[in-house]
Amino acid sequence: MYQDKKIWLGMSGDEKVYIYPRMANRHGMIAGATGTGKTITLKVLAESFSDCGVPVFLADVKGDLAGMCRPGIISQSLQERIDAMGLEREGFAFDSFPTTYWDVYEQKGLPLRTTISEMGPLLLSRILELNDTQSDILTIIFKIADDEELLLIDTKDLKAMIQYVGENAKELTLKYGNITKPSLGAITRAIIALESEGGELFFSEPALNIADWFCRNREGKGVIQILDCQTLVNKPTMYATFLLWMLSELFELLPEAGDLDAPKMVFFFDEAHLLFNSASKTLLTKIEQVVKLIRSKGVGIYFVTQSPKDIPDGVLAQLGNKVQHALHAYTPSEQRGAKAAAQSFRVNPDFDTYDALINLGIGEALVSVLDESGVPTVVKKCDILPPQSQMGALDDDIREKQIKNNILYTKYNDYFDRDSAYEFLERMNLANAEAAEEARLAAAEEKQRQKEEAAAQKAEERKQAASQRAVKSAAKSVANSAAGTVGRELGNTIGKTVGGSFGKKLGGNVGAALGRGIIGTLFGR
């Protein structure tokens, strides 16, 4: 409940335990074993932040947060709790809260999408479960896309980019570093596996503009954004990386805000251990940096998990508001964890923190918050207030009505596919293919022209040779005729001079010899 400009969380005996809104961006933790009341605490805090005008994000892992758009329903156990805590005197009443539903798989909420470029190579490498070498190559692919001014929106864009890099690996290696085709193949296989799990729905447009979450309703209540994660959490790496992406988006989007009277927004990350499982050292460093610095941008982050040991020490040290429900201590390992959790609180001389922790009942918690000066209070044993909204799942018809009546429905419901890397590379490949075909046809035409020219030249040469033979034959015929005439005339003259048969014979021989000599001289024989 929001009371006296403070968030009323629970009762420690007759004392009210509050979280001061101006200290709420110092982050927090809700921890405890399964079934100890973590979800109740989460709902109470989320409702209270909404009441004081702070937008809230919730990851609904079990589907039991969806009822926040409906007022709670009285039950015998709930009435007994209200009576025991004297809540009716304090103005407790069931209430509904402005809620927007989201779902990566587009089944139980507005489609929640982002683009490959916005996700970035570091977080995408984690989703794809790449090794260090493959992650480095994915970073190179992003760099090449940036240099070529190519948008990476969906998975087909990324696959087209990988194909382009593979086809030009020799040239690109000289500029960007070694690019191996086996690594490119491994990345492609990981993308195909992601698509089979619904990744093509998540990486598409219209992409989420997280600024749309900074809103209030007409009564001034902060809108609660609920992401249905019942399916998504079955893919732990994708679930965790998506939440980290949202955190990074907020960090990059928001300007420095300094100390505010209340946070600009509060995020509750359920199953928080998944955020850190299998995270690389680089990613853990980035998470710690964001958690440390995002406070100054007016954002509060609350991690919901079973044990504080699920959260790295560097992050745990940043959590000023802590609600610790019961922990089991049946095994030596669990006992060590419970003792460590107890030791993280400021000691209260009225009770032993460890004994209290392992003996807490459902709905009870050890609470330490930051006071008005930012100093952690001593730990107090508290009864957590009941939520004002409906517990449990929401009827499908009511959910559908809530989704379609939301002002953001028209903005995010319809999918579109704008011009990006895939389309550009397709056009480039088509242009290259057309250019190659034109070059092939031009080469074939040139080859045919040369062949035809060679044939024509040979025909001309044959024609010229035939013409020369005809001329030579004609000349020879004329020469024979002329030589014969000269020879006969000379032979007749000799024959007449000598006289008799001998003269005729001598004249004929001389004439024939003279004719042959003339022909031989004219034609080189």
Describe it for me?
The structure is a single chain. By secondary structure, the protein is of the alpha/beta class. Helices cover 51% and strands 12% of the residues. The protein has 18 helices and 13 strands. Strands 1, 2, 3, 4, 5, 6, 7, 8, 9, 10, 11, 12 and 13 form a 13-stranded mixed beta sheet that branches. Helix 3 runs antiparallel to helix 9 (236-253), helix 4 crosses helix 7 and helix 5 (155-167) packs antiparallel against helix 7. It starts with a strand and ends with a helix. The model has no long low-confidence stretch (mean pLDDT 89).
Strand portion: 5-15%
Backbone CA Rg: 47 Å
Shape: rod-shaped
Mean pLDDT value: 89
**Unreliable stretches, pLDDT < 50, 5 or more residues?**
none
The rounded distance between the terminal residues' Cα atoms is 132 Å
* Category from helices, strands and their pairing: alpha/beta
Number of contiguous helices: 18
Helix residue percentage: 40-55%
Largest sheet: 13 strands, mixed
The number of strands is 13
